[in-house]
Amino acid sequence: MRIATAKETYVADEGLLTTNTQRAWMIILALVLVLAPFVLNAYWLYLACLVAINVASATGLNILTGYTGLVSLGQAAFMAVGAYAVAFLDGHLGTPFLLNIFAAGLVAAAVGVLVGVPSLRVKGLYLAIATIAASFILHFVFTHWVSVTGGMSGVNVAPARLFGIELASPFALYFVIVPITAVMVLGAANLFRTRIGRAFIAIRDRDISAEVLGIPLLQYKLMSFALSSFYAGVAGGMWAYFFRVVTPESFPFATSIFFLAAVIVGGLGTILGPILGAAFMTLVPELLKYVVEWLGPVFPNAGAALSPVRTIVFGALIVFFLVFEPQGLAEIVRRIRRFFHLWPFKT
Amino acid sequence: MDWLFFAEVTLAGLGSGALLALTALAFVLIYKATRVINLAVGEILMLGGYLFFAFSAGFGLPVWAAIPLAIAGGGVVGALVERALIRPMLGETPISVFMVTVGLGSVLMGAVELVWNTDPRALPDFMGATPVFIGEAYVSRKIAIGFGVAGVVITLFLLLFRFWRGGVALRATASDQAAAYSCGINVPGVFSLAWIVACATAAGAGILVGAIGGISPTMGVFGLSALVVVIIGGLDSVLGALVGGLLIGLVEAWAGTFLGGEFKLVTTFSLLIAGLMIRPYGLFGTVEIERL
């Protein structure tokens, strides 16, 4: 049972971590994250990096969809913009790694603002469809602006270099990708303790009321788009350094659905949600691979069924969570926490 | 410029536009009755094509039996989906229901890949190949038949909405659910009906689309073009689906022929964004007024 957590000041009450238990868990998490690469093998490190990249992008989408209520199915396209920006800067200008990642975020943010312009006129599902349109138009740009994007064959990215160390293996990249993601998640958590973040939430809850209360909708909706696509751009930049080749097919439309699904499965409008959701949705297909390997002796052609089964499980997870657990994984975690807070009393 | 060639391209565009309008009708029906955008329409269309393939090529049934069976199969899927997935989501935000249909589309696509694998296939030919000539312009027979069928079905729907009790009930539900309830209309029944009819229509459209272009698990993309049609025409307007379908069909055919195949999607989507900016509720859609 949790006791003695009364707060005497607003500042203490608004803190990110309000109890000692939370602080202890955070320290444990940080230690696990630091020590993990020394324990895990290359395959799991590869997955850990992939999860971190997806968490960064899903967190960005959550700012837009979960907190501002603007549904976007263009997150993958913004990631692609970031990835191409990194490829261009790295290949043509040779600017340093961290600057490239940051610039990728800025370029994606600029594109995001452009895509967000229709959000002034349309909202809800119409906006979702406008972002679908935008992502197909961006895909067209990627295949046809050959001088920058290399057309269908894409561009190669040289390994990232930081302080003279070449970051080529997942082990080395882990120490760059995970801290960047951690900073971005922390940034998102802090955003919603500021005026801007609260304005986003007001717009989500009722945009007309928010406007009446003196929140300029145009400015804040575009800001939300910019922030969200900044996250996507940075994630895409890390993706480019991680896979080292960017093609128009690297970020298909299905990836946008993947991110929206990750945010929904994790829990819209929570910080924890996209982290859990992105990890879950990235790891489930990998676990399916083990299931299929395990079933191999029983069903000889189980391997051929892997890809369709993944598609089915992906869709079924979205449907299952929306129907049975609409608040997502974050709500499950909250329930578990509440159980321990109140224990030995019944919830 | 070769006017005969232009006329032929235009006719082909009108033909595929009619198919788009037919698919768009499935969107409109479901949206009108239940305020749900069903992104799985494309996958149900694909399923219709595959069901026809299974009945005619797999079980060796004659075409006149396989077509109604495939359409009925689409209807059954619609009924199941409405009852099992959409009904429990009543009252949730539109975006949640939208995502349910996205998930459903993924499930259907995976299921089709599992059963029939990913190879594209050709449907058994049941329309003949002798070309049709309108004046001097050549039209593929399949496209002409597709246009005819789509025209008949859309006219039928317009008549049903106007004169049939069920159609009137659907319009009543669309304009005010609570009022429809209090007039004794079985609103959940209307929801079921709309889903069944819409999915059957989509499955039928799938047979036509598959007969023209062959079937593959990715043919659900056709649904995205149809989505553009309904957004431009107006989500709740049958007339909008018709006009929008023909318009998009024409634009796609012209862009595909005169600019190149890869310009097809980008042109329609640019048109979509322009349409949204100028008329957010589509050409014939009902303008929703928001009040505090």
Give a short synopsis of this structure:
The complex is a heterodimer of chains A (347) and B (292). Chain A has helices at 10-13, 20-39, 42-67, 75-93, 97-116, 125-144, 146-149, 170-191, 195-205, 207-212, 217-243, 253-266, 272-295, 306-324, 329-342; strands at residues 155-156, 160-162, 165-167, 245-246.
Question: Going across the major beta sheet of chain A, what is the strand order?
Answer: 1-4
Query: From the alpha-carbon coordinates, what is the Rg of chain B to the nearest angstrom?
Result: 19 Å
Percent of residues in helices of chain B comes to over 70%
Total tally of structural domains of chain B: 1
The residue-averaged pLDDT of chain B reads 85
Describe this structure in words.
The complex is a heterodimer of chains A (347) and B (292). Chain A contains 15 helices and four strands. Chain A is mostly helical and 347 residues long. Chain A has one domain: ABC transporter involved in vitamin B12 uptake, BtuC, CATH 1.10.3470. In chain A, the strands form two sheets. Chain A has a two-stranded antiparallel ribbon with strand order 1-4. In chain A, strands 2-3 form a two-stranded antiparallel sheet. Chain A starts with 9 loop residues before the first helix and ends in a 5-residue tail after the last helix. The model of chain A has no long low-confidence stretch (mean pLDDT 87). Chain B has eleven helices and two strands. Chain B has one domain (3-218). Chain B starts with a helix and ends in a 14-residue tail after the last helix. A two-stranded antiparallel sheet of chain B has the order 1-2. In chain B, strand 1 (132-134) and strand 2 (137-139) form a beta hairpin. In chain B, 73% of the residues lie in helices and 2% in strands. At the A-B interface, helix 6, helix 10, helix 12 and helix 14 of A face helix 4, helix 9 and helix 11 of B.
